[in-house]
């Protein structure tokens, strides 16, 4: 271990640790703006400059190694006044209209202004436009999922890191050196770039320059007007992350609190996307078996189709892979279709002669994009991220943290199994499909396929006797690597791709976090739901069985289910 002192107090850290790690272990604190544990430190914001006894100049703590015997000073008068000047410099180029900013209350710049008490230095006039880069597109609202308001950009580069970690590179630096501004390739509107709407950039942006398209205001308007009957669905990965916004430990399972909060917001029917995750497995597992037996068109290996960032990637970059994509709609879109045409909608029509207003709560920004795809348009009226839901809850002063964790979903469209719960984690869709396919083939054996679990970027492979090898890919960058040669075509029967590292629980619409173990913690929550579920296989979901009897001629891949639960893709 390395022994050093921070502001006079002894601290021990492991070899390789940075000064910032040491400071975090101590009672001291230095602010950071451009640092995130997922990426290499760039030290451009200069907020974490510290002095070291005997050293001539201050150094950035984020990227300077801790060494034996160092005596670090974090808070000298000079350092504090340097930080305040630096902040003032940023504020001079910033619109400073927090009152209208979606990031307000969840913005590192705003927090720092308060922490460093530089409110007085705030320019009185809001300055629209970026004086250093008037030529670049500042306001880009062309994407159905992501808004760019670049006059709020503080040039920390975390969005560039995020997009490059995804190997998409839709945004990059316009210039090197001073005055770097992240822009799209050729300064095109985002919708005309290779952006797949994954939202990883919005997850890392410390301010309000990159955000999910805000739809929560119009949903609140509908709820307030009470003119429409509303149906809301909530995704597998939302329930293990929403609590973070209200002080719960990451991974805390808040399903009951979430249901209660949605009812208090005024939603008339609170339903579970997990119900439709079970339905998805019924279609997708049977689709796989029919492709294997040659009864159905479509190539092997079959790719999962529930991740809209992945679908965007294939359509934009690899249309040759379309025949490999499962035609099964995602749970969100199946749920949208059944909300629009199924039993709840029928009842609403009988009582009010109206159509319902349908909302989904997702950990994902690309789900906004998915809901307006040609084959889906109209089923879902608004898609909100987990972060947007948290804003609504705060806006309505609902005391989420003190709500009992006992709310239950409506029935129908509320029952789900452990197989549905694990959709929220990388490998989960595959594991859920295996549980059903293995039973259909009479393979028996295990419920758990632990080899496909895990949140790190990369590819996990397992081989099932009597079936073949299957792979789960965590992050689009890892999928791009896997697809770079043709090996995969021979090796696997089925491949799950999740765009975001860790799967939906690492989605671009989840709460922002600087915790390096955040994905692990949320994953534990997901598998806890599964292991404590009474029913753990999708085909044993009673509500799903009844839905097949009532709407889909009693079986998956029937004529009726092909019409409502499957989709097509186009380059
Ligand atoms: Fe997912 Fe889904 S599991 S994509 O990650 O399949 O967003 O949580 O809702 O639709 O169920 C996201 C999460 C979903 C869908 C489901 C799938
Ligand atoms: Fe890149 Fe994803 Fe952001 Fe698009 S949404 S710019 S692909 S990180």
Automatic annotation (TrEMBL):
GO MF annotation terms: 4 iron, 4 sulfur cluster binding; metal ion binding
Organism of provenance: Cyclostephanos tholiformis
Residues in 4Fe-4S ferredoxin-type domain copies: 144-173, 187-215
Biased composition (Basic and acidic residues): 133-143
Keywords assigned: 4Fe-4S, Iron, Iron-sulfur, Metal-binding, Repeat
Residues of the full protein shown: 31 to 601 of 711
Domain 4Fe-4S His(Cys)3-ligated-type stretches: 78-117
Taxonomic lineage from the root: Eukaryota, Sar, Stramenopiles, Ochrophyta, Bacillariophyta
Similarity comment: family membership: Belongs to the NARF family.
Region (Disordered): 123-143
Protein's recorded name: Uncharacterized protein
Keyword Protease: no
